[in-house]
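Budget justification aside, the reviewers requested a transparent look at the raw inputs and outputs of the sequence design task funded under Objective 1. We therefore reproduce one unedited record. The lines immediately below are the structure tokens for a 519-residue chain.
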């Protein structure tokens, strides 16, 4: 048999009529915490009726009841009819106009659809009947997990689809707070399995909706608890340039959901040359353009597969902003692997070294230096030997941008760190046979990441002392990023493995770390 089962436990689960309660608001006196209950013998036709031929069900409860959003809380599975709910005294009436299918077991779910009048305790109920001679009794449960974060997903619609219908599920269930979706009263057969976030509530998988799916159909001949979760991911949408922003006085930023590396950019019919561009990632770029009298900008982004046009309007006041020197290092500390560098939101034209000072804090002597300009980045090159703390002073106008804008003044005290101030981590990834991205995390933020091709040991160097964790991503196409699933191409999302045991890094330490998966 070619169907996918992978670690499926077989069991039989009897299904009964369910109800539950929720605590309401205290109103004085002894509190009623019991949800409305059906009165025995006063459900017509009775629950689990076979040979069902009616188009109406009446259920009488033990107290007065009220409806709660019945359009969204009362539904048929399979979804062959739309019930219309009404209440008279203590009796709920459900009617429908559609012709039900022969030899089919139906379940009417009422999930928070009914509340008592006094305390608003709500009820979860199922009413079951069959238009045939038997009631289908198979059950199936599966967890839904976010493929990127590995967190359980609540509220996903999980569907079993007929093999000839990939749009609308024949059976469906909702994942609960534990990510678990449970089906009851299933008919034997073969189905496609998929989960999705039904954003527009149309019970169909839309191209933009997050989706998870099994790559092969599943055969049901007995009840099952599936131990392999469905991995939910948001598919890549159509190629689109998402944003176009201005960073005064002379920088523009473009972001997209596709690679911009081979794209051409035209600003107000002027081509932006590559030497005026800086890529943050392959899908986001800054470029440097001097707006003269212009306040309206039209940007055309062209590649082999797309042409986008974006428009932007700015004010003269925005254009008048000065150059602000932004350190590339953190916390006024510069590692031995870093340079004393600053960036500005414009292309740097010239630097006046006479307006820059470097001073040794220990003896107050000035430090000789040279400056280096790389597009919008200004670096100070000097002999760091025997230096631990320095003062950096930029007078106003030390740097000039292409907008003829002068940089602001800035004064910083910096600590110069040495190699011994950092640690090194070696990680054995031989358990992975394919390309993987190994991410070093601190406080759930990526500090460093490495693409490994041969499953050997990798190293992270220049690591500040602290606690770290790891995440490994199967990078099957070696594009150095995680890719979501693609249901149309039957491609599963790239797997993500979280490793929970924190690793302590100390200064001047070099350690080997085994990867311990989260259970």
């Amino acid at each position: 048999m070619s169907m996918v089962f992978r670690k499926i436990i077989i069991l039989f689960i009897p299904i009964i009529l369910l109800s539950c309660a929720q605590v309401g608001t205290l109103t004085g006196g002894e509190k009623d915490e019991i949800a409305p209950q059906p009165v025995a013998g006063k459900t017509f036709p009775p629950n689990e009726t076979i040979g069902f031929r009616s188009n109406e069900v009446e259920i009488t409860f033990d107290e007065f009841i009220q409806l709660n959003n019945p359009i969204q809380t009362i539904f048929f599975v399979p979804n062959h009819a739309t019930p219309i709910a009404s209440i008279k005294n203590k009796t709920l009436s459900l009617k429908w106009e559609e012709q039900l299918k022969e030899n089919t077991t139906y379940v009417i779910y009422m999930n928070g659809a009914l509340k008592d009048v006094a305390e608003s305790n709500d009820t979860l109920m199922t009413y079951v009947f069959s238009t045939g001679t038997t009631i289908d009794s198979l059950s199936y449960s599966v967890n839904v997990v976010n493929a990127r974060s590995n967190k359980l997903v609540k509220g996903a619609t999980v569907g079993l689809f007929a093999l000839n219908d990939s749009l609308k599920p024949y059976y469906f269930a909702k994942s609960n707070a534990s990510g678990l979706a449970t089906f009851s009263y299933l008919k034997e057969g073969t189905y496609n399995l998929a989960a999705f976030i039904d954003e527009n509530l149309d019970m169909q998988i839309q191209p933009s909706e997050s989706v998870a799916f099994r790559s092969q159909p599943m055969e049901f001949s007995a009840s099952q608890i599936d131990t392999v979760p469905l991995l939910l991911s948001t598919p890549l949408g159509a190629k689109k340039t998402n944003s176009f922003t201005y960073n005064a006085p002379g920088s523009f930023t473009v972001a997209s959901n596709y690679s911009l590396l081979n794209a051409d950019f035209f600003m107000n019919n002027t081509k932006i040359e590559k030497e005026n561009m800086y890529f943050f990632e392959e899908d986001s770029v800054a470029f440097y353009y001097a707006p003269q009298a212009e306040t309206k900008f039209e940007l055309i982004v062209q590649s082999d597969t797309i042409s986008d046009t974006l428009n932007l309007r700015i004010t003269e006041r925005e254009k008048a902003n000065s150059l602000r020197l932004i350190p590339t290092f953190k916390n006024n500390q510069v590692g031995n692997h870093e340079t004393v560098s600053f960036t500005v939101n414009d292309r740097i034209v010239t630097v006046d070294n006479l307006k820059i000072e470097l001073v040794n804090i220990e003896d107050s002597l000035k430090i000789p230096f040279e400056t280096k300009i790389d597009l919008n980045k200004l670096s100070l090159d000097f002999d760091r030997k025997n230096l631990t703390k320095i003062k950096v002073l930029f007078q106003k106008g030390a740097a000039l941008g292409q907008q003829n804008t002068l940089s602001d003044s800035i004064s910083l005290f910096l600590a110069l760190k040495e190699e011994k101030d950092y640690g090194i981590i070696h990680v054995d990834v031989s358990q992975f046979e394919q390309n993987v991205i190994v991410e070093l995390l601190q406080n759930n933020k990526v500090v460093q990441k490495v693409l490994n091709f041969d499953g050997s040991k990798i190293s992270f160097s220049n690591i500040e002392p602290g606690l770290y964790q790891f995440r490994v991503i199967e990078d099957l196409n070696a594009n150095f990023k995680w890719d979501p699933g693609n249901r149309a191409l039957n491609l599963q999302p790239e797997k993500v493995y979280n490793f929970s045991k924190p690793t302590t890094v100390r200064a001047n330490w070099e350690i080997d770390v085994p990867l311990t998966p989260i259970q």
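The CA atoms of residues 72 and 201 lie 9 Å apart. Helices lie at 70-73, 316-319. Computational costs for records of this kind are itemized in the attached budget.
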